[in-house]
Structure formats: structure tokens, C-alpha cells
From TrEMBL:
Domain of life: Eukaryota
PROSITE patterns: GLOBIN, PLANT_GLOBIN
Signal peptide: none
Cofactor or coenzyme needed: heme b
GO molecular function (one): oxidoreductase activity
UniProt KW Cytoplasm keyword: yes
Residues in Globin domain copies: 2-151
Assembly and oligomerization: Homodimer.
GO cellular component: cytoplasm; nucleus
Entry keyword Signal: no
Descriptive protein name: Globin domain-containing protein
Compartments where found: Cytoplasm; Nucleus
């Protein structure tokens, strides 16, 4: 199925509303993930090596933002190019680092579910099945591109 201009607009519109609350959203996303998969916490070095509470962790927001921003960008590219065109070197790096940190299929599912729930709570007034599909599809295609590169860097 191709990605339409309407789907792109749904993703971009909701991200525009959400980004001013980026810090709170990022925290919510992490909390949701660890509620479902507590063991995933150990994967993140900046959480593992730190005793400060999650909401005080300086790196947490930036990391959570990467997932929102890259999924949103993926939606824009899918509409324009019909495929995820994150720079080749970036995808290789993402694939290699997620491979190295021990990320597996189940983790991608937990993050997908958590991401969609977080967005739903952030934009309840405009949330609809089409919006859920658009974010879900953009995420799936981005993940597929990352998974293709999930091997050690040469
Ligand atoms: C690191 C994006 C899915 C766990 C990162 C980084 C980015 C990123 C940009 C930092 C740069 C790097 O280390 O390569 C994404 C995107 C995802 C995704 C766009 C899906 C669309 C996941 C999933 C997990 C995960 C499903 C597992 C729960 C990690 C870990 C790191 C990381 C453990 C390293 C953190 C550290 O520095 O210790 N991710 N990620 N990621 N990601 Fe993801
Ligand atoms: C995946 N990779 C890096 C950071 C993340 C933050 C929140 C949810 C998923 C993530």
C-alpha cells in the first residue's frame, strides 16, 4: 500500500501539536515501554549507569525524541519517495547499534504499541483510526529499514 498525502498530513499535524510537550511525551513513552517490558530498561546505557529518577535523566528526552522525529520523517519520505530514505550511513549505524545493544523483534512491537498509545493520549481530540494507521505504517517501514541493517558493522 502506498503512503498518501493525507496520511503524511495526519502524522505531521499531530507531531506539530505534540512537539511543544516533547519532554513530557518522551518520559511517557519510556514509562509505557518499561511498564510492558521492564527488562528493556537494561538495554539503555544511560539508564543502566544512572541512579537519578527517569524524569531527571538528561539523555532521556533526546532519545525518546529520536523515535518520534524519525517516524515522522519516515512518513514524509514514504509519501515523497515511496520508501524510507534515511541516509544510507544513518540506517547502517542504527542497524548496527540496535543489533549490538541486543534489540529483538519483541522490543520493536513494545515500542510500536507504546508509541501509538502515547500519541493517542497526547492528541485525544484529533486521534482517529486513520491517524493510528498512518503512524503505524510509517513506524513499520522505518523498522523494516533498520532491521535490514541489523548486523555488525564491518
Ligand atoms: C539508540 C532510534 C527502536 C533501543 C537509538 C538511537 C536512535 C534510535 C537514533 C541513538 C543512536 C544510536 O545509538 O544508533 C530508534 C528508532 C527506532 C528504535 C528510530 C524505531 C523506529 C528501538 C527499540 C529498542 C531500542 C525497539 C528496544 C527497546 C535502543 C538502545 C539504544 C538505542 C538500547 C542505545 C542507547 C544507549 O546509548 O545505551 N535508537 N530506535 N530502539 N535504541 Fe533505538
Ligand atoms: C528507541 N531507541 C532509542 C530511544 C528510544 C526512546 C524511547 C523509545 C524507544 C527508543
Amino acid at each position: 500500500m502506498g503512503f498518501t498525502a493525507e496520511q503524511e498530513a495526519l502524522v505531521v499535524k499531530s507531531w506539530d501539536v505534540m512537539k511543544k510537550d516533547a519532554a513530557a511525551l518522551g518520559l511517557k513513552l519510556f514509562l509505557r515501554i518499561f511498564e510492558i517490558a521492564p527488562s528493556a530498561r537494561r538495554l539503555f546505557s544511560f539508564l543502566r549507569d544512572s541512579d537519578v529518577p527517569l524524569d531527571k535523566n538528561p539523555k532521556l528526552k533526546a532519545h525518546a525524541m529520536a523515535v518520534f522525529v524519525m517516524t515522522c520523517e519516515s512518513a514524509v519520505q514514504l509519501r515523497k519517495a515511496g520508501e524510507v530514505t534515511v541516509r544510507e550511513s544513518t540506517l547502517k549505524k542504527l542497524g548496527a547499534s540496535h543489533f549490538k545493544h541486543g534489540v529483538v523483534d519483541e522490543h520493536f512491537e513494545v515500542v510500536r504499541f507504546s508509541l501509538l498509545e502515547t500519541i493517542k493520549e497526547a492528541v485525544p481530540d484529533i486521534w482517529c483510526p486513520e491517524m493510528k494507521n498512518a503512524w503505524g505504517e510509517a513506524y513499520d517501514q522505518l523498522v523494516a529499514a533498520i532491521k535490514e541493517e541489523m548486523k555488525p558493522l564491518p
